[in-house]
Amino acid sequence: QQQQQQQQQQQHRSTARRDQLTAYQTSAQASWSTSKAFEVNADAEKTIKFFGNFPYPYMNGLLHLGHAFSLSKLEFATAYHRLKGENVLFPFGFHCTGMPIKACADKIRKEIDAYGNPPVFPSEEDMEREAQKKQTEKEQMEKDKDPTKFAAKKSKAAAKTGKQATQWGIMQASGIADEEIPFFADSMHWLNYFPPLAKRDVALLGCQVDWRRSFITTDVNPFYDSFVRWQFNTLKKLGKIVKAKRYAVYSPIDGQPCADHDRASGEGVGPQEYLLIKMRVLEENFDAMECLKPLKGKEVFLAAATLRPETMYGQTNCWILPDGEYGAYELKSGEVFVMAERAALNLSYQEQFEEEGKPKLLCTIKGSELMGCSVKAPNAVLEKIYCLPMLTISMTKGTGVVTSVPSDSPDDFMALSDLKSKEALRMKFNIKDEWVLPFEVIPIINIPGYGDASAPAVCEELKIKSQNDRQKLDEAKHRTYLKGFTDGVMIVGGYKGKPVKEVKPIIKQEMVDANTGLIYSEPEKMVMSRSGGECVVALTDQWYLEYGEDNWKDVTEKCLNQMNTFHDESKKNFEHTLGWLKQWACSRSFGLGTKVPWDDQFLIESLSDSTIYMAYYTVAHLFQGDYDMYGTKFGSVEPSKLTDAVWDAIFLGAEKPSESEFPRDVLDKAIEEFDYWYPFDLRVSGKDLIQNHLTFSMYSHTAIWPEGSENRWPKAFRCNGHLLLNGDKMSKSTGNFKTLGQAIEEFGADAVRFALADAGDTVEDANFSDETANAAILRLTKECDWMESMMSESSDERKKLRTIAAKDGDDKNGDFADRAFENSINFAIEETQKHYENMMFREALRTGFYNMQTARDEYRQAVGEKEMRLDLIEFFVEVQTLLLAPVCPHTCEHVWKNVLKKSSHVVNAGFPSKSKDVDVALMKANIHINKEISNWRKMIAKVQAPPKKGKATVKTTVTDMKIYVAKEFIGWRSKCLQIMKDLHSDSKLDTKEVMDALKNATELLQEVADGNFKGAIKVMMPFIKFKMDEVQALAEDGASALENTTVFDEFRAFEETSDYIAKSLGLNSVKVFYTSSNEEGEDDEKVKKAKNESTPGAPCVAFGTLEEALEKL
Predict the structure, then answer these.
(1) Across the chain, which distance is largest between two alpha carbons, in Å?
(2) What's the pLDDT band for 12 if we cut at 50, 70, 90?
(3) 532 touches 253 (CB < 8 A)
(4) Contact of 142 with 153, CB cutoff 8 Å
(5) Is 311:405 a contact under the CB 8 Å cutoff?
């Protein structure tokens, strides 16, 4: 029992400081809630507003630290603008549209149906065996029913999915009790369960959200549903939505297109369009080849997928994977295609087979059986070519059949060369010489720099020896493929003399029209839907948004160009997305959401109903009841009153409906709110949403508010990278994962916020460190304790502080240290504001907290705890509190009210003002002094180091120091500076220009080394390099490094801080002299050396030792 009590006491001690932060957190949040500090309205008197928002998170689980990282960027920005006194709106919604919630709910229902409630799952091995048994039975049933019908085998991806955790297990891992899980079989339960928890965690983090404006998506919220219906009706009226047949990534399991948010993997992957080259199998094969006998009498083609139809003139053979499993599939046209099973499945969703998803299989063929099969290849110069082996063919990309053009494909050239030169390789696959040896490269395209046959040329250039030299072959393709398209010219065929880039699409269309080619699409990479199946590309007849249409794209590019994206990389990614983004399937038949207004068999998909909802934030609180995110408590109106005409009046400035149709006071207030807050000033998001959501948002804004209404377009998108946790990728499966709630419980909100701010500012991946969060707990609580001791009228520490501007008598150190400390505070205010404005929060933390702490500590060390000035400490405490408030508002609220005794909230107290302008010279002097102290400390340590073994020397003790300061550079150094000064421009110095000028400086060279250039450079170069580096480091202020003197009074700086320097180095005394002065002991060799070597900004010193003093005595 005693041991248990000791453990409890230890645990309490270990969490005491965390609990201290949590107490500040609870108190501050209660105060903000009571005063409704973050509930804001349109206010004409507050002319400066700031409206920031964040992509509403998807509600299929708890928020985690990855959400919190992106969210923190918005939180810090809005907190900063609120601190400045702006009218700030930060709303927060919850996304429930789409397939994932419905898919998860269905999985739970199926698991309960199959395994009971609670389900008793078989072992993983048993589950795998059962799945395999069912698959075999299914395949056999298909064969028995119709042996010609295709029976899909379980893919590797699907097999892997079968081994993953059950949905029940996923819910358990999320902390949901077994008795609760069955309720999640109803998708509506997800909507009622997770949004309130997300709101709880965001509020616990201290986010300054106006919760009156929150909502969930889907038709569950009738007000938001009405808004989305208006949005889509408007886009359709504008001609931005059309119904058409288009290729889309499609989930066979779900029976609908699979958009990014519906995918378990493969986000951002789109359809890749190929041309299937129909290589006709010649009649001579049907009797000669056993595998083709069942196909005799039919039109049979080897179907090869290509992206380069213009190269088909140069075909010399057809590649087949010897171990590949191929099938002969009969299309609805009656033609038979030989291809891989996966390709046939894709093609079956593209209206080429009688039944969708069921390609008609006539027979299976092993790749090795096709060796030597002769075909007639369309557009080829040669009348007949043969099937040959290639071992690098992938059966999961294209069709498994590859046409060979060795003139322009390095892979084809090396594979054909290997077969020609290696008889053993031919024998291994039973390849006859006449199928290979007679066939030579056929030149078809001239590429500048590579001639008429680029592949042989580049392979020779890179010294590629074999088809297995993968790295070099990839480089060869990189060098020739793009150049072939941009600069290539046809030298054969009907388009001889024409540029490849001009005739490529023409040749492709001609082959389609001549029925020698067929359009085929498949996903660029593997895509898995959240329902667990592998996706295909399907030709779907549905509603599309016309993204990429020329005029719409031009206006959207204009929107991008006038918007702040904060990082060049983000801007380039937006430009890239606008370059490739085309029509987008915006309707679905499965999931949750808003029905397409004019075609209610479809739902609006999840990335299409989330593009302008920021506008809905401005009015949501007027329509929805008290803090009702579901819209079930009607506020000022019923949802049925919100007609398109009402929304037009609010958002488009159209004519107002009559009072009988809609209450005029509510309508006028809604218009006032929208006009005041819109456009939004900032949207923060992960960079992965650039390729869809953020670009969609720009498109939708430029459509609904076209040119002439640019004042409604987004002002800024700020994108960030993903978040690592303790240096590794966050993953539930590895256990390296934290929900937001867990992090707040472990560290407290302000420590979490501190670590999020410190995690990183760029678009690269950032890192949340537990170590940083724990360190923040200690730093923040210790700082609070110190501030309380300084500000408490009754504390002994406060009574020690100076209450006058300076001590009586010669206050050398106090004067300089006071001025330097005040200057450092003012500089921190200036720099931190710049970083907050640029959303560089890690930098703001550095200048607004770490540097402030360092300045205070250096000041305390310089003058001593008893000699710090009270007014400066009060200034420091207030400024430190305000600079840190956007990042750690709970702790700062505690200091503001309970330590500084302020009556207002810190969150809108006003950004701190400088007491005076920053003195750059003083700042440099202070930096210079502390840098030199560090250098001298190392020098003293070296002098006082214990003697090495075997040496009969006595240990040295340094007792005093003389500092020798040079007033200005003289001699050759001064002349070098003048040369560099004359050449300095645009904050840069060119090394070659400096060297050329030195060569011509005859007087200087004579002075340094009797005119010998090499000798002079050897002497001068260290100084010149030092100064050039200093110019580069100082950037815009680089010219100051080339002056003959320092920008500050170096002598005075050292003289005023001599006592501080002595104290810091543990010396009895420190004295300061000019190098030109005469003083006692100037004949000392150490003094002479110090005087001779000292230059402005680089003082030299002479140490006095105890041994020397004793010797003199």
Answers:
(1) 122
(2) low
(3) yes
(4) no
(5) yes
Q: Determine the Cα–Cα distance for residues 308 and 185; give it in Å rounded to an integer.
A: 49
Give the separation between CA 1008 and CA 979, rounded to whole angstroms.
15
Strands 300-306 and 336-340: parallel
Backbone torsions φ then ψ of 1087, nearest 5 degrees: -65, -45
Residues 432, 372: contact at Cβ < 8 Å? yes
Walk across the sheet containing 682-686 and list its strands: 87-89, 49-53, 682-686, 717-720
pLDDT cut 90: percent of the chain above it: 69
Residues 6+ apart with CB under 8 A from 618: 51, 89, 213, 670, 673, 674, 676, 677, 678
Mean pLDDT calculated for residue range 715-730: 94
Q: What is the DSSP letter of 310?
A: G
- Least confident piece of the model among 725-734, 795-804, 1034-1043: 1034-1043
965 vs 975: CA distance, rounded Å: 20
- Residue in 534, 552, 553, 536 with CA at minimum distance from that of residue 155: 534
Place of tokens 């210079």: 928
**According to the model, what pLDDT value does residue 133 have?**
66
Residue 913, classed as helix, strand or coil, is: coil
> What's the start-to-end Cα distance of the chain, in Å?
69
Please name which of 711, 624, 637, 622 lies closest in space to residue 670, comparing C-alpha atoms: 622
Mean pLDDT within 653-670: 96
3 state SS of 965 = strand
The residue whose two tokens read 């891989």 is: 340
Burial class (CB in 10 A: 0-12, 13-18, 19+), 788: middle
* Number of other residues whose CB lies within 10 A of the CB of residue 1058: 20
Q: At what angle do helices 65-83 and 812-837 cross, to 10 degrees?
A: 120
Q: Let me know: does 863 contact 814? Beta carbons within 8 Å.
A: yes
Helices 770-791, 740-747: axis angle to 10 degrees equals 40
- Measure CA 721 to chain center: 2
Residue 412: C-alpha distances to residues 404, 454, 510, 640 (Å): 6, 12, 25, 66
Question: Residue 348's pLDDT is what?
Answer: 97
Percent of the chain whose pLDDT exceeds 70: 93
Q: Count how many residues are written for the chain.
A: 1113
Mean pLDDT of 259-280: 89
Distance between CA atoms of residues 1097 and 1046, nearest Å:
6
Instruction: Identify the pLDDT of residue 1004.
Output: 86
* Beta-bridge partners for 1071: 962
- Which band of pLDDT confidence, cut at 50, 70 and 90, is reported for residue 647? very high
Of 842, 845, 855, 848, the closest CA to residue 911 belongs to 848
Q: How far does Cα 77 stand from its chain's mean position? A: 18
Query: Of 1032 and 111, which is predicted with more confidence?
Result: 111
**Beta-carbon neighbour count of residue 72 at 10 Å?**
27
